[in-house]
Give the backbone structure.
Amino acid sequence: MADKNVTDALVRGILLGGSVGIVGGLVLSMDLSRALFLGMLCGVLGAVTSYSRSKKK
C-alpha cells in the first residue's frame, strides 16, 4: 500500500492542477476538457517530483 504522504501529495497535485487548468482554459479559450486533463497531468508530475526531492534530503 502506498504511503499516506504520497497519496496526499498526488491528490493535492491533481486538485490544484485541475483547478489551474480550468482557469487557464477559461482565460485562454481552450477546450475545457483538454485544459483540465493537462492541468491534472502537470499536477501529478509536480507532486511526484516535489515528493521525491523532499525524500532525498
Summary: Residues 32-56 form the longest helix (25 residues). Residues 24 and 30 are 8 Å apart (CA to CA). The mean pLDDT is 86.
